[in-house]
Design a protein that fits this description.
Elements: E1 12-13, H1 14-21, H2 25-34, E2 41-42, E3 48-50, H3 52-66, H4 71-112
Antiparallel strand pairs: 1-3, 2-3
């Protein structure tokens, strides 16, 4: 598995992204059309600019493709990963709410002493 180091910037042009992930711009443009998760913006000159999130998605697509997965299988895996992240966020929110309630109970108990 290749290691990717992303320099600290807010947005990256397609040429920079191409060098970062080792894929030609044409492949990145193709993936942009195939994967709805990729949403590069356009700058004032009309050039695509990619966020760190977009680059992470591209890295994930590249790694899956390098493992021999087809476009359809990659789409399914990305969808499953998104569901897992959403589930983790829901669990985290629930735990935060429980923590808040327990802190309130603790305050009440301390007030009774």
């Amino acid at each position: 598995m290749a290691k990717f180091i992303i320099p600290a910037k807010r947005f990256y042009k397609i040429g920079e992204v191409s060098k970062l992930i080792g894929e030609p711009p044409s492949t990145i443009r193709f993936w942009e059309k195939e994967f709805k998760e990729l949403k590069p913006l356009k700058n004032s000159k009309g050039q695509r600019v990619f966020s760190k999130k977009d680059i992470e998605i591209l890295k994930s697509i590249k790694e899956k493709r390098d493992r021999g997965l087809t476009i359809e299988l990659i789409k399914r895996e990305l969808k499953n990963e998104k569901k897992k992240v959403e589930q983790k966020l829901m669990i985290k929110e629930t735990l935060f709410e429980i923590k808040r309630e327990l802190e309130n109970v603790l305050k009440i108990l301390k007030g009774l002493q």
